[in-house]
Amino acid sequence: MQHDQKPEQDEQGSKPVTTGDRNVRIAQDLRPTFAFQWHITDECDQRCKHCYLFSEDARMACKSMTWDDMLHVLDSCYDLCERMGRQPYFYITGGDPILHREFWRLAEELHARGAMWCIMGNPFHLTDEVCCRMRELGCRKYQLSLDGSNAATHDLFRKPGSFDDTLRAAACIKRSGMWLALMSTVSSMNAAELPDMIDLAARIEADVFAFGRYCPTTGQRLEEFHMEPLEYRALLVACQERIDALTDAGCKTTFQKKDHLWTLLDWEQGRFRIPEGAQCDKVYDGCHCGIAHMTVLPTGDVYACRRMESKIGNVHDESMYDLFMGQNMEAHREFSKFEKCSRCELAGWCRGCPAVAAGYTGNMYAPDPQCWKEVD
Predict the structure, then answer these.
(1) Partners of 33 in beta bridges
(2) What's the gap between Cα 196 and its chain centre?
């Protein structure tokens, strides 16, 4: 099946957009997009070690959004995008969204509205029939998690059998014509296997491979999963070497540099240069928190970023537009408050990960704990 565009174009490109009283450059599709990470349910048949949903209470009561509430969220998201001249892009997730009893009804509604949407979910309920139906209803890609290059490591994070089921489901996704995306959560527990995970993604012909760093949810987990800055830099160098070798060999997988510290390494290696005429007080790329992304939970709570405590309100109390333009979200656009990044020449393109900083210190403006750059 032919895709309508390359997967790396899902959210890339740049165009000036006014957000609040600031002019920023943000990632976008060929049509400017706004991303909504939408958790329609907490129901999940895994209890992953690094999951923020169950980090404090593995027996928490799982919530799911009602059908009427889902329609309200859709209408409010479309209203925001219409008022901002944007195109909504829905990342349907959970928990595992397939476990929501109205999942297929939502898929049909998204298709009827001509929405751009994809899924971030588990492998366990995917079959050829299920994947083909998703694709017929307009699902562009399905993102699976991959946390090890073998069953021993991956299943340690997730549950026995998860690794084999992930590879089985990946084949179903590929056969359906959806893009297959693989996403890893990297920490000291699995970092040594990351180059081999890149090889695995290429071997099974994943359309997209990316990874992000673990955000600590407890002090114990911080100590267990921590990586030192130069240790993390060495990992990125090893991954870049593996990606370059695969690309030179004709690999078609798109290796997305999701972690913004890639920008720092690219700048050091001459792969990225600050464009002439760039203004030091403008944001051109980096973290989209507060710029082009919002997260909606099954309760209707809206977060600036789900990877840290960043609730800005509830969609049942205020519209998505008012929440995005409000003071609670404005706090995530106070780029001058970033203690280290605001003094760095790469501030307009990097800024590390505020969620990781918040996980370590409770302060999203604190220096990124894996950033190795010295700033005067």
Answers:
(1) 87
(2) 21
